[in-house]
Amino acid sequence: MGININRSKNITVNGNLVVDISQRTVVALDKATDVVGGILACAYVTGDCSDISVINNIVAGTTFVGFAGYGHECNKYTSKAFKNNTAHSIEGVGAVIFQDPNEASQRVCMEGSYFYAYKTTEDGAISYFSYKEVQYSNMIFIDCGYGPNTMIGQEGDDLVARMKSIKIYGESPARDCFYEGECDSRWHAGCTSRNGMMISYFSTSGKDVLPRSKSALPIHKISKDASWGGRSEYDGIEFIGFTDNRTWCGAS
């Protein structure tokens, strides 16, 4: 772990650079899922936290997840629970954004906002939990396996997954291999496919904040029946620089 907060109150994590957090060798040999993260706020052990603020941080070069932190009440942009953070070069997910159990309003509508991610092999940011509405806004994703991913894990008649004011860029000029088409001859982490985003999904249940079971990974993996009554709303989503169906390195 880089910074791991559990069972705490009145904690502010501001302006840190967390770099090069790798999987533990002994766990890799055991073929178990190692929950590795740059900055985890009340996610490894959920609950028993209050007044946690994670702002203006950068996480680079970790596996599994860059950040895991609380969202905020929808459209309440004064919140500093999780704001202006950046994840890059992540072999996994840029950020898992989940409800603060102390805020009942987030069980109705939870939002993640003002987050930025580039070069993640999986989702730039993802939320897949139990709430009636989930919303992402004011985010930027560059060169990610997938960009933003809003999913709902509960049954209901009027479920809404919403995204607004988000920019999603395709492949960046920073190359992930030594020569063009390299992935045609050998596979490595730079051969990850690039996709703008996954369409939101509504299922009868969601995921743990940090799933330990390999069968539950990746986090966006769908293993439950669909819910009734879900709808997706997208407003002001820009897709920029998606010029080819293959990356420069040769990934499809």
How would you describe the overall organization of this protein?
The mean pLDDT is 92. The protein has one helix and 17 strands. It has one helix at 25-30, and strands at residues 3-5, 9-14, 17-21, 37-41, 50-55, 58-70, 72-73, 82-83, 85-98, 109-113, 115-120, 123-129, 133-142, 146-153, 159-169, 202-203, 230-240.
Which terms summarize this structure?
252 residues; 2% helix; 11-stranded mixed β-sheet; globular; 17 strands; mainly beta; 3-stranded parallel β-sheet
Q: Could you say which structural class the secondary elements and strand pairing correspond to?
A: mainly beta
> What is the residue-averaged pLDDT?
92
Number of DSSP strand runs:
17
| Rounded Rg | 17 Å
Oligomer: single chain
Q: Please state the overall shape, judged from the principal axes of the Cα atoms.
A: globular
Reading the helices and strands in chain order gives: EEEHEEEEEEEEEEEEEE
- Our count of helices gives 1
Q: What topology emerges from the helices and strands here?
A:
Layout: E1 3-5, E2 9-14, E3 17-21, H1 25-30, E4 37-41, E5 50-55, E6 58-70, E7 72-73, E8 82-83, E9 85-98, E10 109-113, E11 115-120, E12 123-129, E13 133-142, E14 146-153, E15 159-169, E16 202-203, E17 230-240
Parallel strand pairs: 1-4, 2-5, 3-6, 4-6, 5-8, 6-9, 9-11, 10-13, 11-13, 12-14, 13-15, 14-16, 15-17
Antiparallel strand pairs: 7-10
